[in-house]
Design brief:
This protein has helices spanning 2-16, 22-29, 33-45, 61-73, 76-91, 133-140, 144-153, 167-180, 222-226, 229-244; strands at residues 49-51, 57-59, 94-101, 104-111, 183-186, 193-201, 207-216. By secondary structure, the chain is α+β, with helices and mostly antiparallel strands. The strands form two sheets. Strands 4-3-7-6-5 form a five-stranded antiparallel beta sheet, with helices on both faces. Strands 1-2 form a two-stranded antiparallel sheet. The two termini are 38 Å apart.
Length: 253
């Protein structure tokens, strides 16, 4: 039975390459055409493959519907939370998870610092788009035209002397974030608070969320926080792997 299931599942990535006839499916599986036909008929009955008028088979609509339903029912916060807690336990700093929705980046989850000095961020509250590290990670993933249009209509408050001054500077920074795969806010929103962030990606490689570690200077200097970047990125990769169904290649610990 397990061999039959394995063979049936092996048909799906083949058809993902494009429509294939019975002979090609049988050759790929290394089985007789009658065996391949039985497997294809079973998959067809469940809507996972579809037989075209030219007698070739392609992936069925039911497969796409199941994939879409699975994605819609994934709760990124539920998946990420244990990873955020683990990172917080290891380093003690405030850890955030944020998502981009309708031209805002919102904090979706937060694990508080174990130190007396706390962050004023709240779950559900929008972040400062032009300076927050999680916002830069989310916005850097937007298509260039959308990214430029958004940057040009934003205001650029001067929270501190390190705040992003205008759209041109913001676009340059987003391009750098997109290339390097991480972002920082080193006193751009609050003079005494630093933050490093990394992307959480879905199965298609697109950014679905951003996670960050933040700390005031009295707890950790900017250099000390930047030293945690590899750990932050490994944690984000671990969340990405679980969210997208991939087995992580390395441990975030």
């Amino acid at each position: 039975m397990s061999q039959t299931v394995d063979r049936a599942l092996s048909i799906l990535p083949l058809l993902a390459e494009g429509p294939a006839d019975l002979g090609r499916v049988a050759d790929r599986l290394g089985v007789h055409k009658s065996t391949a036909l039985r497997l294809l008929r079973t998959l067809h009955e469940h809507g996972l493959v579809y037989r075209q008028s030219d007698q070739r088979y392609r992936l069925g609509a039911r497969l796409f519907a199941l994939a879409q339903e699975a994605v819609e029912n994934l709760d990124i916060r539920e998946i990420a939370h244990p990873h955020l807690v683990r990172l917080n336990e290891q380093r003690g700093h405030t850890v955030h998870l944020a998502v981009y929705a309708e031209n805002e980046v919102l904090h979706l989850d937060k694990v508080e610092s174990r130190y007396p000095v706390r962050m004023y961020s709240r779950i559900g509250k929008p972040v400062a788009l032009t300076v927050a590290a999680v916002a830069k990670v989310c916005l850097a993933d937007l298509p260039e035209g959308e990214r430029r249009a958004l940057a040009e209509k934003l205001d650029y408050p001067r929270y501190t002397s390190r705040s992003t001054p205008d759209a041109a500077a913001f676009l340059r920074e987003l391009a750098q974030v997109r290339e390097q795969g991480w972002a920082t806010d080193l006193g751009g929103h609050e003079e005494s608070v630093n933050c490093v962030a990394a992307p959480v990606r879905g199965a298609d490689g697109r950014v679905v969320a951003a996670m960050s570690v933040s700390a005031p200077n009295v707890v950790a200097t900017a250099d000390e926080l930047l030293a945690l970047l590899p750990l932050v990125r490994r944690t984000a990769d671990a969340i990405s792997g679980e969210y997208s169904g991939r087995t992580p290649t390395t441990s975030p610990v």
